[in-house]
Amino acid sequence: MFGYIVMNKPETKMKDFDMYRSFYCGLCRELREKYGISGQITLSYDMTFVIMLLSGLYEPKTYKGTTRCVLHPVRKQPVRKNVMTEYCADMNILLTYYKCLDDWNDDRKYVKLGYAKLLEGKNNRLLKLYPDKAKRIVELLDELSALEKEGETDIDRMSGIFGHIMEEILAYRQDEWERSLRRIGFYLGKFIYLLDAYDDVEEDVKNKDYNPFAKKYTMEGFEGEVRQILMMMMAETCREFEKLPIIKYGDILRNILYSGVWCRFEEVSRKRREEREKEHVGSI
Predict the structure, then answer these.
(1) pLDDT of residue 278
(2) What pTM was computed for the model?
């Protein structure tokens, strides 16, 4: 995953941040216990959001505890885990494995191939647990890869494919909430794909890697156009979210959806403005 769906820490209460952090640590522990260190390094804030969204909707029994952490060795860290933690850990491994294979097929990056080999045995078990989801995710990644090789510039089409991948992940079960969860996943996935492309465009162009914004990022008004598109994606995401009967963790989820998702965009925009100002001053 990409790590864009995060909390805006300065805008949240400490107790809410501690709750959020305990689910993040729970996912970290789940990945380590089920998949070892190779699974643990796939940890992301994006999937932590999915855990809390599904937990707030379905309210499964959640287990609390503490754990030792290499990053915080002084004291034990609070941990929360439930069936959504297990599910999202599985989805994280599934998506990472096929994304690594896709990167290997596209760019022949041996690091990606090696990582895929580490996850291969773990992924084989998941194929039996989630055959339909795995098949759909592979089809979508293959489609995305093929269009990238063709240099497709239709951002709606490209982001939509990743939106369908996230749609599969959020559709936890077939019930009355499936439609809203799928729509949240779809628009959130489009947001993630587009923000990642916006974030990486300069580096991708420099390295001659694919980016759907490669031909537009130097045009006047590019940043404003991207901001507008991203706002549309999040407006649809939030509209569907508000249809769900979520009370538990509601404040945390709204912090993420209405504020946290913009943290990276604002950071990248600020850095690029500062760089342009330095260039302007230097040319005077």
Answers:
(1) 75
(2) 0.91
